[in-house]
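Q: Here's a chain of 280 amino acids. Please give me its 3D structure as tokens.
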Amino acid sequence: MRLLVFIVLLTWFNQNYVWSQWQQIWSSSSFPYTTGSGWINFEKNGDGWKMRLYTIDSLKFQIMTDTYSQTPEFTYTFNESEKLAGLQIYSLQADLDGDNIAEFYILSYYGTATPYRQSFKIFNITNNNILLEKNDPLLYYSYPIIWDLDGDDKLECLVVKYDYPLFLNYSYEIYSTGTTGVMTKEFPKDFLLKQNFPNPFNPSTKIVYSIKEQGFVQLKIYDIKGELIKTLVNEIKEAGTHEVLWDGTNDKSIKQATGIYFYELTNNSLRDTKKMVLLR
């Protein structure tokens, strides 16, 4: 009897007592199940970033007024081509126009069937000012990558463009942003997608990646046309370094032909892509 009373009291204690060093500072209201949400790097804060809560649904993307707020301050409404692309909006984690706010990019799809033609724009979400937009009916554009390519302490924008709709050739475009910006300093160390090895390969290759903290991870293989070939990872992963093998087959275990393939890693708002060559 005493043991039963002790267990009941212990259960009540664990459910109702908050340790003094663990004081709750905020609690959100409920979100609809169809609404995505989380925190994203938004405001420059010295050498780092202050995060804000965001929400996203099938119509709009919203940034809240503060880290612990559900009051929208900035709203971006998706157009039809952006909806077709799957509402792919991302923070670039760089201030490219000097207002201490991170710029965003969003992808758009055009056409009525696969392969859709992809374009993108980089913009300031606070005023919808477009910094760079690439949209050509004869070209398919990758998403933009912002980094310091030549070590001059200024940020460049790297874009890959493909002939559309045949995808026979591709080329690079590099733009100088004219700004030093503030990138997330821990990005190269804490979110890392390594070059596959061996490369070129046959019959299999190893892909190694690292993430800073536990989170949902996707690792996907695409062909030169941008069509999904295989999903290698689609689950929550622990922080640290992971590796996975690709045997050159698609999701139906069919061997793929010789050619160029791309593997893309996504983890929360971070993304990286690399190229590999399969030789049969």
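Q: Can you summarize the key feature?
A: The helical segments are 2-16, 80-84, 187-190.
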